[in-house]
Amino acid sequence: MARIEFAKGVKEDVVPDVRLTRSKDGSNGRAIFYFQNPQALDPEFGEEITGMYLIDEEGEMVTREVKGKFVNGQAEAVEAIYPIKSEKEWDRFMRFMERYAEENGLGFSKA
User: Fold this and answer.
1) For the chain, what percent of residues have pLDDT higher than 70?
2) What is d(CA 103, CA 51) in angstroms, rounded to the nearest whole number?
3) Contacts of 8 (CB under 8 A, 6+ apart)
C-alpha cells in the first residue's frame, strides 16, 4: 500500500516521472516528481492541492513544494520537489519508492 496524494484522502492515479539527485557524501538530495495531466488538475477534482503526500505502511512524508506547470494558460502538469536531508531520510524515501514502484510498474535507470 504505497500511494501519492495532493489532497488528504484522494489518491492520485497518474504515475509520475521521478528524478533523484544526491550529494557525493550521501548526506542530502532531492526527488523531483513530474505528473503529466494529473487528476488533481481536473476542474472536477473539487479539492485544494495542499501538498504532496507520500503514504505507505510506515507512515507519511510530506512536501509543500508543489508547482503547477501551464502551457498556453492551461494547467498541464504538476512538479513537486521532496527534499532529503539525511541518510536516514534517504533510506526511508527509497523504501517508499520501492513499494510505490512495485505497485505501479516503475523501473529505475541511472543517468
Assistant:
1) 96
2) 22
3) 50, 53
